[in-house]
Model the fold of this input.
Amino acid sequence: MKHQILYILILFPCLLFAQSKISKLECEYMVNPTGIDMEHPRLMWKYEGDTPLKQKSYRILVASVKEKLSSKKADIWNSRFIKSEDQLAIIQVKI
Done:
């Protein structure tokens, strides 16, 4: 029992300071496209981290200006939280 508690106490700070990020953001296989001609574009991303954590859900916000994304009030589309390990989403509204 002491070994299990010690292991948890050692592991917990490591998880707190683990670095993870979302990278390789793409829209229709392009990075930072200046324009797209798809009504329902595909969005792709890559989850990278120091630990073997898995993505369990995602949320996508689409807004007309960056400030609306900062306040999490997307005026074009809000996917809400979707439980999925997929790293691909198709925007469900006509853009």
Observations:
- The longest strand covers residues 20-27.
- Residues 19-90 form a domain with the Immunoglobulin-like fold (CATH 2.60.40.10).
- The CA atoms of residues 39 and 95 lie 5 Å apart.
- Confidence is low (pLDDT under 50) at residues 1-15.
